[in-house]
Prior knowledge:
Largest sheet: 8 strands, mixed
Helix content: 40-55%
Number of helices: 9
Oligomer: single chain
Distance between the termini: 61 Å
Radius of gyration: 22 Å
Mean pLDDT: 94
Strand order of the largest sheet: 3-2-1-4-5-6-7-8
Number of strands: 8
Structural class: alpha/beta
Order of helices and strands: EHEEEHEEEHEHHHHHH
Amino acid sequence: MLQVVILGTGNIAQHLFTAFNKNSSVNVLQVVGRNSKALLYFSSTKTTTNFLDIATADVYIIAVNDDAIATVSQHLKNKKGIITHTSGSVSMLDLCNTKNRGVFYPLQTFTKGAKVNFKTVPICIEAEKESSKNVLNKLANLISNAVYDVTSKKRKDLHLAAVFVNNFTNYMYSIGNDICKEEDLPFDLLRPLILETANKAMLLSPEEAQTGPAKRKDKTTIEAHLQLIKEPKNKEIYALLSKAIENKYGKKL
């Protein structure tokens, strides 16, 4: 049985804790965090706010904000277990000076209270030692069917791609929602379109799935849309994206 300590109490920590608890081959010995109220979520195991009282484990998973990873890892510099973090954009080398460090990065957006099927979540692992990588691979495979060996450089590239397909896409949803509100239209009208677009992304390449006035070289529609947009920043975004699609498909508007 793999013994795990989680450092952090946020969304990723909670979802990993839940996923590990569903597998009898993993034992979450302890959860460490500064927020005693947040630690109540982990009441089925030992918890502590004292970073000088961290249990001995096979794997330590630091699930905190990126800018706190290096600082938190200093509390583990004398531990023999594998010290890991869950960030997509932080190098493995940012962990404290140890020869037994790695990365345990679940590539997914996590929302408090929302259930996640971890079996479908890609987990990217990295380690300095081959023996440590084998342990992380074993741990990841206990909760996921999609485990990948990814270097810090490639993981940063992957995280960048994820920002485009997730965070930026969701911001586009917010613009669409704002337009609907301005015109007293229900955003629910767009939800089937969002689902269909997502489903197409599962079946086709992005190039094959692309539609819309910019790809069709529909200058009349684009100009009409630009006239309708009231918010200057949204107008700029619309024009920029239309131009980018034009360049991507080699068409001039």
